[in-house]
Amino acid sequence: MLRSVNAIYPNLQYLGLQVWNDLKLSPVCIQCVRWKRKPRWLPVAKSKLFRIPERPKIDESEDIELKRLHDRYRTEMRSVRNYFRQEFKETSANSLAALQGSKDEEEEHLRCMKENEEWNKQVALLREQRLTKIQEARKEIILAKIIAFEEREKEQLEKAEQMVREEKERAKFYITADNIDKAIEDALISPVDHNYAIDLEGHIFQGHKTKPTDVPPDKLEKVQVQGLVS
Amino acid sequence: MPNYEVALVLRTMSRPELISTLRRTADAIFNKGGIIRKVENLGTRNLPYKMSAHGSVHKQGSYFVFQFICPPSSLHNLEEEYGRDVDIVRRRIFKMETPEEFECTLHEEIKPPAYRKDVQKMIEESKKIDKYKFKYNSGLDYCPFQK
């Protein structure tokens, strides 16, 4: 049911809301009403209980025309339907055309499979070549590594043997419990001094507290520098 | 067995005492299954600072170096034994490593930079680097747009 706003808010103007007047709008308020005229369960009104509505009067010629049109429509529709039915029968799975089509498809599939297999063979050949190449390269690398490892081992062994040989030679001068007394005596007699100093000319002064004046000039040693032109 | 070196600072003693102390330290090595290679006497000197060891302060010490071969497992015991010795002021065991071989390049380093081989090499390397240049791919040898 539609009612105007003024019906619900008749005294908006007194509330100071003159929006509607200012905007000059005439909006409608939509109020929900459950039944438009009367509830469902109400029976026919007493006044309308025995009222018989008048049958619509159709013109006879118009009626004939309508019937004709309707018949025509129905025949046309039937013919179209029959035509489609026929067509479907011809092209359905059991039809000759369909069988032929499926046969073609099968042949096409076989052909495709054949081609695919050929391609696969070619690719397999290429792959095999590539793989053998890689394998050979890896073999070479591994062989080189093995050789290098063996060489290294050999070198290390040689080094160790060299060390053992040197140590054996040195063993003659080892100090053991037998000759320690003599070694101590010798050490006490001859103190060593590893300190030395170098002046700007490259002269070496041995000793911890040696002064430059202590060494006679004809006994001065000089630092040996490779490639240095003095 | 690897080579080791023990540097000792002994308190100042009379000669027989010194000999007996050295003998004791050497015997400690022998008892551990070691062999001495060399005994060096670095002389008796003033210590760089006052050192207190075993309850007495030392201002002078005799420096000794023992080069020896010894199983590594016995090093700790050796060090501890020396630590307990009253006559030893300071002791430290080092592993002896063969010095690295190197070539003296002083004569090369003394030269001015332009004559140094490594500098020349660096300059050449810097020249070699071809930097990335943007390609327009327009088929033209000039830039058709305002740069």
UniProtKB/TrEMBL annotation, chain A:
KW Ribosomal protein (keyword) present: yes
Principal place of residence: mitochondrion
Pfam assignment, any one: MRP-S26
GO cellular component terms attached to this protein's record: mitochondrial small ribosomal subunit
Keywords, ordered alphabetically: Coiled coil, Mitochondrion, Ribonucleoprotein, Ribosomal protein, Transit peptide
Coiled-coil annotated spans: 147-177
Subcellular location field: Mitochondrion
Family listed: Belongs to the mitochondrion-specific ribosomal protein mS26 family.
PANTHER family in the cross-refs: 28S RIBOSOMAL PROTEIN S26, MITOCHONDRIAL (PTHR21035), SMALL RIBOSOMAL SUBUNIT PROTEIN MS26 (PTHR21035:SF2)
Name of the protein this chain belongs to: Small ribosomal subunit protein mS26
From TrEMBL, chain B:
Cellular compartments per GO CC: mitochondrial small ribosomal subunit
Matching InterPro entries: Ribosomal_bS6, Ribosomal_bS6_sf, Transl_elong_EF1B/ribsomal_bS6
Pfam families recorded: Ribosomal_S6
Record Gene3D superfamilies: 3.30.70.60
Superkingdom to which the source organism belongs: Eukaryota
GO biological process: translation
Signal in keyword set: no
CDD domains (UniProt xref): bS6_mito
Keywords tagged on the record: Ribonucleoprotein, Ribosomal protein
MF annotations from Gene Ontology: small ribosomal subunit rRNA binding; structural constituent of ribosome
Family: Belongs to the bacterial ribosomal protein bS6 family.
Protein name: Small ribosomal subunit protein bS6m
